[in-house]
Amino acid sequence: MIAAASPLAGPVAFLRQLFEAAVAAADPARVVPAALPDKPAGRVVVAGAGKASAAMAQALERAWRARYGETPEGLVITAYGHAAPCERIIIREAAHPTPDAAGARAAQEMLALLDGLGPDDLVIALISGGGSALAPAPAPGLTLADKQAATRALLASGATISEINTVRKHLSLLKGGRLAARAAPARVAALMISDAPGDDPAVIASGPTVADPTTRRDALAVLDRYAIAAPAARAWLDNPASETIKPGDPRLARAENHIIAAPRLSLQAAAELARARGVTPLVLGDAIEGEAAEAGRVFAGVARFAAGPDAPFGRPCVILSGGETTVTLREPPPAGARGGRNVEFLLSLALHLDGAPGIWALAADTDGVDGAAPVAGATITPDTLARARAIGLDAAASLARHDAHGFFGALGDSLVTGPTRTNVNDFRAILVGPIG
């Protein structure tokens, strides 16, 4: 986890404290123990995937041992660098957002753990954002390379996370309810840390323990909408066997899904801290989607209004939001360019604020990684553009080539936390007005 908040010392430090409060609210060590299921008469098997899954496994082991005097066995898959030491639960690391061979091998290990369970057994599924990529279990007739190609195309297309997961579910042996179906007739208790806009359990990590209301025709429609060829995926989706587990399937009758941490709860924690510091929080929701650069333009308008004389609330105030924007790559970015949706949002915000006084902002991914760079996000200040011009940086050109990480890194305004070992999606905070 990131370090505890330091004493208030200026607008940027205050914004960092809000981010820290949001991440702390989703700390697995805080939220897992209260959600422990009852001990079964039979075996306990732990399975899961996601950027928070290793920390969840660690918290589960400690809480289970304290309550029941023993430690459960199992396996979870997390992202490289997000592991946490466990006693008996095996931790595997794999690639995100594009799956790799390590994830495919670990997914097969997990599937094997689910075989042969009986009605007295319990599977505790530890599910969090990132699980879709981290546990690739290609459906019959598909290879890992097929899934990698489809994933890369979807990520670059501008498709929403819900659309991407609609496809992923239908290409997998684990997603779309298939993990729970494989474990039947055992009881399944899924503990979920949500990174999904709206906290739909069927979307978190592509819903491995949740009945899937989407169809293979919906998945094909997503590929058509974004002109994605993916011939192997299309061939499988034409097969009725590609259909996921649907609502009412008896194999899911004993599957329970519990969201134990979510973006809205993290936003509430940040809002409570702001209020305690005398800053009015304005929470705009946890399900903001759309193009990151366009969101930056819109939020610049909101911030300007909040700074103006017609705002129906006092200052200082902080505009809080979550969700998951997208970055559409019309063509491959130039060599060396490094971007992510949070820093792209911020760079667009800075350009449209154009040095407006009294406005600061932070945007970051709560898992500590924005895009493919080991950087959580960044901050902007009223003089961001002026400081950039002073060292020869062109903000508009950096945005056009999707090099926002390079831009903020050159300014020294990157937010580097390291892996937080949780994941409740993006966190954005725009502070308007001076703070005491």
UniProtKB/TrEMBL annotation:
This chain belongs to which protein, by name?
Glycerate kinase
Tell me which PANTHER family the record gives: GLYCERATE KINASE (PTHR12227)
Sequence ranges assigned to domain MOFRL-associated in this UniProt record: 15-235
Write down the Pfam families for this protein, in alphabetical order: DUF4147, MOFRL
Q: Where is the MOFRL domain?
A: 317-426
The uppermost taxa in this organism's lineage are:
Bacteria, Pseudomonadati, Pseudomonadota, Alphaproteobacteria, Hyphomicrobiales
Source species, domain of life: Bacteria
Q: Which UniProt keywords apply?
A: Kinase, Transferase
One GO MF term on file is: kinase activity
